[in-house]
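Assess this one:

_____
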Amino acid sequence: MALLKIIIEGFLMGLGLSFVVGPALFALIQTSLTSGFKAGVRFAIGISLSDILMVSLVSYGVSALFDNDRYKMIISIVGGAIMIVFGIFTFFQKVPQKSNKTIEPSSLGMSYLTSIGKGFLFNIANPGVWFYWVMPVGVAATIGEVAMGNVTLTPRESSLVFLVALLIAVLSCDIMKCAIAYKLKTVLLPKVIHFINKVVGVILIAFGIYLVVSVFLKIPQFV
């Protein structure tokens, strides 16, 4: 029962974290609207893979690098530049016209590896996401031994169960966002989707500029 409690707590925390508004959310929705549900899911998988890597690194204390001004400046500038490029691409991306024919992912320039790679790179390049994972990793670190039948999980194993449940919840919610965005696509005119691309592009560019400028003006980063 104690193990189930940890799984439920991890899943619920993941549900809460998945609704934090950030550049990845806008990019995920835009990808699903423009390139379809499958492309959105692949983008979400890329985000999830980067989340797994960041959770692992934060658990080992790599997030302490952000206390070093030099490393923080480099990461913020590189991350901001990636977001700006992604925003410009989104702003000028053409919207395929509605058709009864099935559009292959490759014709949209969204191959499997490309979609996953974009999600991975986009998410991991955002310095704010590293801080985003510090809190749940900290919560996981406070979990002690947990009984599972005749077996007792060590604190490290219990923390792992908590984080796995949390990451599954985040990925599940991201896929749900893709499904909702794709459903909206079926009722939205291409002109509306084109307008959304423009808005999301501007938002992503603004996030990127914010990351770069925040380094020089010493503005706290919360994205």
About this structure: Residues 99-110 have pLDDT under 50 and may be disordered. Residues 2-12+23-60+67-95+111-216 form one domain.
